Amino acid sequence: MSSPVACGICSGALELRYVGAAGPPQPGDFAPSCHRPRAWSDLYRCRECGTVQQPQLPAGDDLAELYREMGDADYLAEERGRRATSNWILDLVERRRSPGRMLEVGCGHGLLLDEARRRGWEVTGLELSERSAAWARESYGLEVLEQPLESLDPREDGSWDAVLMIDVLEHLEDPAGALARCRALLAPDGVICVVTPDPSSPTAWAAGARWWGYLPAHTYLIPRRTLRELLVAEGLTLTDDVAFVRTFSARYWVDGFAGIAGPASEPVRSLAGRIPPERSLSLSLGDERVMIAVNAPVREPEKPLAGDRGTDSSVHVVLPAYHAASTIGRVAADLPVESFDRALLVDDASTDETAEVALSEGFEVLVHPSNRGYGANQKSCYTRAILDGADIVVMVHADHQYDAALVTEMVRPIAEGRADAVMGSRLLEDRAIAGGMPRWKWLGNRFLTSIENLAFNKDFSEYHTGYRAYSTEFLRTIPYLRNSDGFVFDQEIFAQLVDRGARVVEIPIPTRYFLEASSVSFRASVRYGLETLGVLARYRIDERRRRWPLLRRPVGASGPVRTGSPKSG
């Protein structure tokens, strides 16, 4: 078979990571408890998104048939531990959603669904294995459908309060498509829970070819950063990203370690035999992630601030907001409503009346379930705008520090085809101090800007403005969802702009500093400055090594259209 040439997640170039020794796969190779070291075919790693993949596995009906014939006689030997693990997962899910309708994709023998039903959930499972599905139905009376996710009745869309994929994503031919399908199934405020091995973890790197995650049945092993990107690109709000804690008998754990112990495997297995069978152990190896994301709905105002202008370019104004109830009205009053089509405010879990005031002023409102940070707020703003069909997106701060009346000027260079991004600069005509900017901030801004111009070989007047406009066509070409959730997001996206050769136009803007305006403390500013210097260092190193994930290809629904499965050449 010829070598694959393109990643099935981002279409990036693949490099051979480990040479495999497996023959044609058998149904038993796909059993959850099958952990034979090096029993896989060739493993490739994407140079762009880092996904490790096994593209020589069967596909389509051939792959589905292997799963249908699969049995796993050893799975229930660890039933007590697996039920404990299931309840640990359900505890996480129920922090975000109270019991309702739950769908588990790849439910196996039904242990998690059985535990969920006891906790008040109305449960349904999908499972291809005929024997596992039969066990779940006959032993626990569960509703289990022997069909793949993509064939689920579209009339079920928008009706599930929780969709779970526990150790399933790595088995699928199209993981990104599966996440999109799950997103469509979720009800408003519904949650998706994904558990999958992380090939970028220190444990995976240390174990090398003996890592347990490299199995014959694993088609795609998606790194933590890439999985986060895929979830958020669907318009979901990521709320939890934690290491997976499993419970097994101590014997099971020790026997598993023996499988990667090399020459010491027999002494280790001998030790396992002396451990009392009733002794259990809850443990995380740090190489598998649990991610939970919420389908936070966009709330519609009774009287929208703007409407569709019927022009060739759809302009969306977005406001990242936190505790901005006292200033939103002034921003709304200044906005030139004839210059844009939609206005969205993303509330980062404020404890004041930010969301209610924004709705009353005509903004659409999306509320984060928990405080995620300034960068995470921008990710929601831009992703929502892209998914809603924007051609140009303008960010205006909700604290009234920037003049919202200048939206028309911010949009014009992009609409005229002269720019990919527009920056409102307080230092282009240098009226910042007159506008109330503290002198220490002015000095810090000037200093960092001069350093950044040297690092980027540019001559911009300011890098630290929060007044920005982007072409969404350009945003789709950069992996902004991999950026920090904090304030340094703005500098990371600047590095991406420079790396991609974006056309950036600056326009002069006034600034306002007053009591209600958001202000960053001196300590936080120092941290931000150090993080900015870190961005510059990574950028310069990447010029030689080309390994910084923030400058590689994006993935997911808000990025370029994927080309699908890897192709051979």
Describe the model:
The chain is an alpha/beta fold. It has 2 domains: about 75-295, Vaccinia Virus protein VP39 (Rossmann fold, 3-Layer(aba) Sandwich), CATH 3.40.50; about 300-550, Spore Coat Polysaccharide Biosynthesis Protein SpsA, Chain A (Alpha-Beta Complex). The protein has helices spanning about 60-70, 80-95, 110-120, 130-140, 175-185, 200-205, 225-235, 250-260, 265-275, 330-335, 355-360, 375-385, 405-415, 440-455, 470-475, 490-500, 520-545, and strands spanning about 15-20, 45, 50-55, 100-105, 120-125, 145, 160-165, 185-195, 220, 235-245, 245-250, 280-285, 290-295, 300, 315-320, 340-345, 365, 390-395, 420-425, 470, 505-510. The strands form 4 sheets. It has an 8-stranded mixed beta sheet with strand order 14-17-16-15-18-20-19-21, sandwiched between helices. Strands 6-5-4-7-8-13-10 form a 7-stranded mixed beta sheet, sandwiched between helices. The longest helix is centred in the C-terminal third of the chain and has 24 residues, at about 520-545. The protein is globular.
Short description, anyone?
With 569 residues, the chain is of the alpha/beta class. It has 17 helices and 21 strands. Strand 16, helix 11 (354-360) and strand 17 form a beta-alpha-beta unit.
